[in-house]
Amino acid sequence: MAELRLPAPPRRHLLSIADLDRSDVERVLDTAASIAASIDREVKKLPTLRGRTVVNLFYESSTRTLSSFELAAKRLSADTMSLRSSGSSVDKGESLKDTALTLAAYEPDVIVVRHPSIGAPQFVAGLTDAHVVNAGDGKHQHPTQALLDLYAMRGAFGRLEGLHVAIVGDVLHSRVARSLLQALAVVGARATVVGPPTLVPRAIESLGCEVSYDIAAIRAADVVYVLRMQRERMGEAFVPSLREYTALYGITPQRVRDGQVVMHPGPMNRGVEIDPRVADSPGAIITDQVRAGLVVRMAVLYDVLTVAPVAAAVEAGIA
């Protein structure tokens, strides 16, 4: 009698917040909290991903995202390799397909992809047997940023349900904003997009948010989430000048109130979208976001490689 073989479970990726439901988000955040508790000890490395290989494939400049993914893999005892387009065969004209096939030959367990083209991580996922994590694709998605933002908010307020978050600035060019809006809707938080009409996409309300073109609308929010003005992606058609944008929409001490939390995904344009006095104020948790990036990305790497519930993290040595 032939042996009955169960089909292998599908490979698990993190390509978009749209792929997650509330239980998925809560599982990742809870795993990140367990990891945070465990790495406060003197020996910070965990054996969880020993023997695994994580490749970071970055076609765009990055400080926070790349460094946190590198450190996250190392803290979980995985072998790591980072490939930037600059200085690689990409400079010689190698296509994304050929680069992905080359990396696939090394049989990595996870490939983390950052690329200026929408859909690049999905494309890589179709070419390899690795689990793929989207670290930002064009103006489309940046799911791990949204998850770390939720983690930081939960740390500041003790909850996510019912929070009101005002997302201010260049929403049009922001993958961070799109992912965060979807994530806030998943966890039952309220979102308001605030900015000039030229920088607020049409039909953005379809992502479950409200829209205001008046900066005064931020005073009703629990969280003021400030977006970077992406000058490399815009021209004079979007704002007459950065000075005028700052005057109308810059986050200054006069525009925020006591008790509000201020966030920014970085890098910050101090004096443009955010006043340095706000960025350095007690209400700003921008540094907390950076810290959250490490534990959340550790949790994501663990999560895509396992189908076990959060309790298994303890057995795996996370807690």
Question: Could you explain how this protein is built, in words?
Answer:
- The chain has 319 residues and is α/β, with parallel strands linked by helices.
- α2 links the parallel β1 (53-58) and β2 (79-84).
- The chain is 34% helix and 14% strand.
- α1 (22-38) crosses α5, α1 crosses α9 (286-304) and α5 (143-157) crosses α6 (175-186).
- The longest helix is centred in the C-terminal third of the chain and has 19 residues, at 286-304.
- It is built from ten helices and nine strands.
- The chain is globular.
- The strands form two sheets. It has a five-stranded parallel beta sheet with strand order 7-6-5-8-9, with helices on one face. The protein has a four-stranded parallel beta sheet with strand order 2-1-3-4.
- It has two domains: 17-141 and 291-305, Aspartate/ornithine carbamoyltransferase (Rossmann fold, 3-Layer(aba) Sandwich), CATH 3.40.50; 143-286, 3-Layer(aba) Sandwich (Rossmann fold), CATH 3.40.50.1370.
- The N and C termini lie far apart (44 Å).
- It has helices at residues 22-38, 64-75, 96-104, 120-125, 143-157, 175-186, 242-249, 276-279, 286-304, 311-315, and strands spanning 53-58, 79-84, 110-115, 131-137, 164-168, 190-194, 210-212, 223-226, 261-263.
Brief characterization of the structure:
The protein is an alpha/beta fold. It has helices spanning 22-38, 64-75, 96-104, 120-125, 143-157, 175-186, 242-249, 276-279, 286-304, 311-315, and strands at 53-58, 79-84, 110-115, 131-137, 164-168, 190-194, 210-212, 223-226, 261-263.
